[in-house]
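Worked example 3 (structure in, sequence out).
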């Protein structure tokens, strides 16, 4: 089960990064081009958001199965256990929350601020994801 979950987590990771970057670039370009939000933009944003949630759910299940997650005494002194038990999941949860907020705000914002909400929250999430992945040595 662990190997299947690990493989799924890796595959979805690449799909998510492509979708998230595509959503970010689309929103960024349309914001500075003063273009309105259209149905295609919502589809791109929803695909990125859905993949983000799927990745997080697979990660949560993987978290329960992983041999790299440990709550034994002194686990914070071991960098691998600390990373997988605390740091990775915390940073990814924050990234999921940021993307969710950025896309959810689109419904309530005036037209001129919709794209900015998406790309600004996604940029912060992408920086956080990159920092989390680069933290692991």
């Amino acid at each position: 089960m662990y190997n299947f979950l690990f493989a799924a987590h890796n595959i979805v990771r690449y799909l998510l990064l492509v979708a998230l970057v595509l959503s970010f670039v689309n929103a960024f370009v349309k914001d500075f081009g003063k273009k309105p939000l259209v149905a295609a933009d919502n589809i791109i944003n929803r695909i990125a958001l859905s993949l983000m949630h799927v990745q997080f759910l697979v990660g949560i299940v993987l978290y329960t199965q992983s041999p790299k997650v440990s709550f034994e005494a002194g686990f914070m002194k071991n960098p691998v256990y600390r990373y997988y038990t605390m740091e990775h999941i915390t940073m990814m949860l924050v990234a999921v929350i940021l993307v969710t907020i950025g896309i959810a705000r689109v419904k309530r914002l005036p037209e001129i601020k919709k794209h900015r909400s998406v790309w600004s929250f996604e940029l912060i999430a992408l920086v956080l994801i990159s920092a989390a992945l680069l933290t692991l040595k």
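Notes: The chain has a mean pLDDT of 94. The chain has one domain: 2-135.
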